[in-house]
Design brief:
This protein has 2 domains: 91 residues, RNA polymerase sigma factor, region 2, helix turn helix motif (Rna Polymerase Sigma Factor, Chain: A); 91 residues, Arc Repressor Mutant, subunit A, CATH 1.10.10.10. Helix content is 75%, strand content 0%. It is built from 9 helices and no strands. It is globular.
Amino acid sequence: MTTERDVDQLLVESVLNGDKRAFELLVLKYQRKLMRLILYYVKNHSEAEDVVQDTFIKAYRALPNFRGDSAFYTWLYRIGVNSAKNHLISQRRRMTTSTDTAMEDLEFARDANRLRESSTPESILASKQLASRVSDAMNALPDELKLAISLREIEGMTYDEIADIMECPIGTVRSRIFRAREMIAIKIRPLLGTKLDRRW
């Protein structure tokens, strides 16, 4: 049985053997996921697109160094995270800021729609309020916590994969995800009417 990791490895080997179309397939496969990841750091959509493109260029150039110790996408995500951080550092040097969070808000609105139990006006309003509160709570998290919880809950990655992307021990990943969940719970607990001794 062929896994996604095996398919990616075959594509990487094809690229290294001169098949540029194989890299285009990797780009098509991961550009949307990479864009979502980059948007956690770079809030401006057009700047995030530039960072995604830069990430793929760096990955293409570094592909001969890819040993396959981790999955291709975790290696690619690590390059993406580093590219996003470098972009933010260069932006800070220019003393410019951006407040474009429309894409992130759309993601949370979609997630909130899944939480709906029925289509009554009350439930729709409650879902929108919850989505807004979760979005605000996520935006307020420190970058490391936001990235860890997003990779886990939105991208569905394992703790090992997240540790690889964030280049930290798995215990640190668990701690960051726990702290992120606690901070989000504090913000949404009033909407859900849960007690202090329960998270949700």
